[in-house]
Amino acid sequence: MGIVSEACKERIRERVPLEDVVREHNVHLVASGRRLKGLCPFHTEKTPSFTVDVERQYYYCFGCQAGGDVFSFVRNAQHLEFSEALEILARRAGVSLEFEGGYRPSTDRSSTLPIYEALVLAEEFYHQCLLDGVAGRAARQYLEGRQIQPEIWEKFRLGYSPPEWDAFSRFATKKGVSFEVLERAGLVRQRPGNERAGNERAGNERASGYDAFRGRVMFPIRDAQGRVTGFGARTLGDDVPKYLNTPRTPVFDKSQVLYGIDLARGGIQRESRIGIVEGYTDAIVAHQMGLDFVVASLGTAFTTENARRLGRLAPRALLIFDGDDAGQKAAERSLDLLVAESIDVRIYTVTDGKDPCDAILRLGGAEFRRKLESDSVGLFEFKWRRTLESDRAASSGVALRAKALDEFLSLLARVPNVVARRLYIREFAERIGIPESEIAQRMEQVAGRSRNGAASSRAPARHDARRPAPGTSRFDEPIFSPESGPLGMQPVDASAETNKNAELAELVLGCMLALPGKAREIWSEVPEGLLDASPYKVLAQSIDGQLVGDALSIPRLTREINDPEALRILTRILNHLEDDEGRPTQDFEETWLHVRRDLLRHVRREKLEELKRHLAVAEAGGGSRPTGELRREYFEMLREIKR
Ligand SMILES: [Zn+2]
Description:
The chain is α+β, with helices and mostly antiparallel strands. The chain has five domains: 6-102, Zinc finger, CHC2-typedomain (DNA Primase, Chain A), CATH 3.90.580; 113-189 and 209-252, Alpha-Beta Complex (DNA primase DNAg catalytic core, N-terminal domain); 256-376, Dna Topoisomerase Vi A Subunit, Chain: A, domain 2 (3-Layer(aba) Sandwich); 391-461; 486-627. The protein is 52% helix and 10% strand. The chain is built from 28 helices and 16 strands. A five-stranded antiparallel sheet has the order 1-2-3-4-5, sandwiched between helices. A five-stranded mixed sheet has the order 13-12-14-15-16. The chain has a four-stranded antiparallel sheet with strand order 6-9-10-11, covered by helices on one side. Strand 10 (228-235) and strand 11 form a beta hairpin. The longest helix is centred in the last third of the chain and has 32 residues, at 588-619. The protein is globular and about 95 Å long. Bound molecules: zinc ion. Zinc ion binds at residues 40, 42-43, 50, 61, 63-64, 66. The site of zinc ion (ZN) has 8 residues, from loops.
């Protein structure tokens, strides 16, 4: 696609406040001085280090150093191409994209917008089919049979897919949606054998296929922003499978789904907790009965991403599971991840009915809620009962009981908080009648063993690429320690020359931005070569271009820089200039004096390196200058640096 005009991007920025977009991504922002603060959506954390500068419209995380503007936020948060983020925001702002030179994007295959549009069309189509006359009667009867009320059909936009082979695809193609888009959205399938023929298709001959969902009750699945991403579909007959889902598409991944999250956000916020059930109807009925903080995991075990997302949504999670063994096993699979994310988890096992939906209807919302409070257990209690107090464990011999204890301890070992771990050990040591110290020792052994085995599966899951697990490669590690950029002092690894240069470069840029009136003077003292590394070069060029007159405009600068890495560095620098109240973090006049001295030292050090190289050449009998002269110069320079 072509280059979108600056004016166009500017209009989008004006109309779509960054803080709104951030909030829509489940980040709870609270005012903290001049900035808004919240838990970072890009890394796992317990205390907020993610900030939004409302005035300047950029974000920055002191923890993982993610930073940028509204475009980079949407791009990173939703894992999109820049062009896709741009399209989404443009549409939201009601701005049509203008391209420099008048170039319009072709129907870009990588774009997800047509897919979302097709899904909305499908949702509307299925919903009408549910409401309309004869065709939808069986589906309505099913919903009524489950005591799901019509207001809730509306709220969840439930639907019905007619049993014909191509009812939806005929409707959609008539509306101008291409078969290819429908296929990418997971709404139609190619007829077997059609694929090859498709490639050889000539001209306007249309591809043919059949509807992916036929004769089923349709549950539209939405993301937190309320966009339909896919469907769940339940058969009304004896078709196998009973539930069918949208396959993996560019916008849908079942393992990431929290069904109902778009409708549960208010409830979650209000209750400071999130309830999790397994099935569509469980979640729907929960909402119907006033338990509006409930979402459904759709029976998949949690992914790390999911667990982490839960932690951002609410500090507490309540898992509501079927009483049968399959339900319990599903619960167990998710525990490891939840422990590692330090989410306060309670587990409620349904006993009054065959599933949560049934139990909620039977007991009523208020009574079910009361049961949740009184009968749910902590995560370790649940695990304890599953391992050491199960019937199987009780009747088994010493070896099996010891094995069950190990299983329990390996979960306990994942508790990140040392104090909490100790407290748990104390509690459970008493119950099993083994001294605390011995339990603790055994836990270390078990943890050590599982660490060797499980390190590979755990490490990348718990950490961003930017923050490798301790002991893994330092290759991706940030140059500076998370809490402190160069303006906040110590770099992690000062030994590498490039890091020193990067540090100095950021200090210089920081001083320029803090002292805009002095920017030109500072700029003139930057030695050649210091800002040659790529992100700094981009920054330097922009600054150079902005130095009209003597002042430097920060908003203009953040706007002009499109390189994400450069923007990230810029936001990092900007965030170290002022504290939350908008006061300078240090006396930058004084800082500049120090930096200036460092610059001088930098120049000398470079010179020293150069002399060293010449000297080596001369000593090997080459070069044009006498060895003695070079050596004298070298030591003189060394003395100066040490002074
Ligand atoms: Zn972060």
